[in-house]
Design goal:
- The chain is α/β, with parallel strands linked by helices.
- Helices cover about 20% and strands about 25% of the residues.
- It folds into two domains: about 30-140, Rossmann fold, CATH 3.40.50.80; about 155-240, Beta-grasp domain (Ubiquitin-like (UB roll), Roll).
- Helix 3 (about 75-80) links the parallel strand 2 (about 55-65) and strand 3.
- The strands form three sheets. It has a five-stranded parallel β-sheet, sandwiched between helices. It has a five-stranded mixed β-sheet with strand order 7-6-12-8-10.
Length: about 240
């Protein structure tokens, strides 16, 4: 939003694509538990509009500092009605929603959807670790800087369509190197959150660092988010580019 405000003006031309949805309602759920923190209500509110037309059960837990600091309060009440519980914590998340208690008991057919600050999303992920992995869905707007990662190593990538080998130095991403080589790749967040740079992986083992692929998808090693992920030690990645 800030970039649009700062960079675009009347008659500016931009390249756009159809929306990519990596945070969507499950089609096989019988109960949807929605958890939103602050402006994280944005995609959750869209889910609420859809759920009103479906037959499954659902409930929203909405976490904000106070009623006055609750984005889209009127619309949330209109869409969810009695199916929303507000959790006002006065700015201290520890006094708000008890995520551990909410997710203590897995229920067959129930799916969890979380969007908001990284702390809320990670708390929900931690306390739902005993749930089926496919029942947990989340979306982040930003990621916390990693503090425990080992130093990056240089590696090579081979672009199969271009018949081109590129070297990726420790301080640069695959995306940056590929883009500098003149290869067009669709991107958006460049933080491993949105899946826009999803690329088919044809060979080599990746060090997956994104927040999009499931554990099973990372283990399958058939795709990679080239904005953040890298090659495993000693590997050369073969990309469908």
């Amino acid at each position: 939003s800030s970039w649009l405000f700062d960079q675009l003006s009347a008659n500016s031309k931009v390249t756009a694509s159809v929306p990519r949805i990596s945070f969507a309602l499950a089609t096989d759920a019988t109960m949807h538990t929605l958890i939103a923190g602050g402006i994280g209500i944005t995609p959750i509110l869209a889910m609420g509009h859809e759920l009103k037309t479906r037959s499954e059960d659902y409930h929203l837990h909405y976490c904000t500092p106070s009623e006055a600091e609750t984005p889209f309060l009127k619309e949330v009440r209109s869409v969810f009605g009695p199916r929303v519980t507000f959790h006002h914590d006065g700015g201290d998340p520890a006094t708000g929603l008890d995520v551990q208690a909410l997710l203590a008991d897995p229920v067959t057919g129930q799916h969890i959807y979380v969007c908001g600050p990284a702390g809320l999303v990670e708390s929900a992920r931690l306390h739902s670790s005993h749930w089926p992995e496919e029942a947990f869905h989340s979306e982040l707007f930003a990621v916390e800087p990693a503090t425990d990662e080992l130093p990056n190593e240089a590696f090579d990538v081979f672009l199969s369509r271009q018949k081109m080998t590129l070297s990726v130095p420790p301080e640069r991403s695959i995306l940056e190197v590929v883009r500098d080589a003149g290869v067009a790749v669709e991107t958006s967040c460049e933080d491993g959150l949105c899946s826009c740079c999803w690329t088919r992986l044809l060979g080599g083992e990746a060090d997956h660092r994104d927040h999009v692929l499931s554990s099973a998808e990372k283990l399958a090693n058939e795709s990679i988010m080239i904005c953040v992920s890298r090659a495993a030690d000693g590997e050369t990645l073969i990309l469908d580019l």
